[in-house]
Structure formats: C-alpha cells, structure tokens
Amino acid sequence: MKFIISSKEMQKKIQLLGGVLTNNTTMPILDYFLFQLEKDTLKVTASDMQTTITASLNVESQDEAEIAVPARILIDTLKALPEQPITFHSNDDQEDQQLEISTTSGHYSVAYEEADEFPRAVRLEDPQTINVPGSVLGEAIAKTIFATANDDLHEQMNGVFFEFKTDELRFVATDAHKLVRYKRTDLSSEEDFSFIMPKKPLNLIKTNLFEGDENDVQIDYNESNVKFHIDDIQMTCRLIEGKYPNYEAVIPDDNPNVMVIDRSQFLSSLKRTSIFANKTTNQVRLKIAGAELNISTEDLDYSNQAEERLTCDYQGDDMQIGFNSKFLIEMLSNLSCKEVQLNMSLPNRAGILNPIDGVEEGEEITMLVMPVMLGN
Predict the structure, then answer these.
(1) CATH number of domain containing 200
(2) What pairs with residue 235 in β-bridges?
(3) Where does the pLDDT of residue 24 fall: very low under 50, low under 70, confident under 90, or very high at 90 and above?
C-alpha cells in the first residue's frame, strides 16, 4: 500500500473519526482505523461496534489494499504536522508489518494489523429512506439533545426520538424533568416511521458535520439500524430498542397564565440568582404579578439568598411557581430568540416555554419543564 495525501485534509477527517473511539474497549482492534485503499480513493473507518463511521478521501495512488492502523498515534501525529503532502507506505513483511509515514522533514514508522478482524458496518436490509436538509437536522439535534436522560433503567430516554410523519417531522427528547419537541411542518415522510437515536452518534453529527450545511442528508433506516449519508461521510449506528414514552400526554393543553419576557434578561438573571440556590435542588422561585417578575433563590444551609426583579408582559392570575434553575438556564441557552413565552396553569403543573421570534417558517419549538414544590 502506498499513497500521498494532504496532511490537513486527512487530519480533518481523522479527527471526526476519533470521536467514535472508546477508552475501555474489550476488542483491541477497535483502537485501530481501517484503511481501505482503492486507487485514488482511501476509505478510513472507525467503529465501537454500536456506531461505525467511514470517511472517503482523495489520494494519489494506483494501489488497492486494506490494513488496520493504530488510531490514536495517527491522530496525534497528524495534529502535530503542518500542512504538507505526506506519503504512507506499508511493507508486505508478515513478521514485521510496518506503516511508514514520510513528510518533507521526517520519517515515522508504526506497526499495523491485518484488516480481517476489523468489524464492518451493518448492511441495512430493505431500508426506508428520507432526505433532510443538513441545516435542519443539525438544528433539530442541537435543540433536543441536551434534554436527553442518563438513565440505565429507562434506556429509551437516553436518546432523541425521531418521528417521521406524512405531514411533518418531529424530534423529541426528555429526561422526565424537562422535554423538548422540535417540529418541522414544512418537511414530511412518505409514510409514518419512528426510531430512537443514541446520543453519541448525534453528538458527532452536531459537533462535526453541520455548519450551516444546506445539502440534503440521506437517512436510511429500518427497525434496528440507521445510516446517514453526509457528503463523503457515512455513519451507521444501532438504534435504541424499546417504545418511547407517550410524550404528548404530559404536555398540558390549558395554560391560561402567559408571561412574555426578554430571553437574554431572563437568562442572565437566572444565572446570577442560581449562584445562591441550594446546590441539591437548584430551586428558583418565580413570583409573577402584573408586569413584574420576581426571581428569588435561597440556600438555608448556608444562609445564602438572592432576589431580582424584571419587567414582563403577563396575562393571568398572580402566582408563584418553582423550577429547577439549571433546567430553565439550559432551555433558554438553547434558544436564539429575543423574547420567550412561558405558559403556566398551576404551581404543580408543567410550564411550557416557546420562542416568540427567531424561528423559520414551518419550524416549531416546544420546551416543557416540570415544577418543583415550593416551601413556605
């Protein structure tokens, strides 16, 4: 095997693949990248058995071969190199298998393994297919993934629920304390289908693949696996099994008390007052009367307390309601609007947070946060 490639171009793709690697694998081969050279195309694959990503790169070569290359030493080497052409050359010595890396000023050598043991991506049998704009998919992931759970007993809540319908697309996440539903009424599927995506591959997509990408992403899926086609990247992952909770049942319909407030001011006030809240409950008290919102926190164990007042537009009965300030801060931080609307009914019922502006046509964002009981 011999090929020449730009160091920075390879480093960019290798960095993405490195996100799949795990620190405590029971299979040593998973610490390697699979190199598949087909003349002027090099396919590099990383896998943790649950998620497999393959990136295709253009190279200068006439060879065809497969080997497994130590991943972390390759990542560190490419990260330390300046932009330049680099040459990879493997020998055919079965007893001393070495991959040589040559640059304009250096020469490095690392032992490689045979490619036979490396796991291959699952082939999806009779998949359904849908195309979603990359920018939409990236936004849907960013708006929901923070609300997923880390629950060993309820694994279904540890991912994002993809719900494709003939009249709209929905992306939902919940940890039973907060819930986010991201809806696109301007997109649809040929038939109803749903699945639960794990967080790890979603984070890889969110972090690395979509920076205002308007190109369509092809999604192939069946009952157990999903495959994303993003330009020269292919990612296959195993879905979370089980039935997703009936999230619609927890979203209250009747919320007569409606507060509209500047998102940035509300968020800043919560960040300041939460410093003085109890570190176990993170409880914040919202007292709303007329056009004034009173935000207060206290930590009785350390005699700490804070209080701030903000102006708002409020329609409804005077009320006091408690929330986990951490959850409110997360939700407001994941919105980009100028004003938000908080809909409430009773102090023991969930509050519904919606952006007033800053959403595209066909885009709907609903965030739900459960209350915490206030003391006297």
Answers:
(1) 3.10.150.10
(2) 53, 228
(3) confident
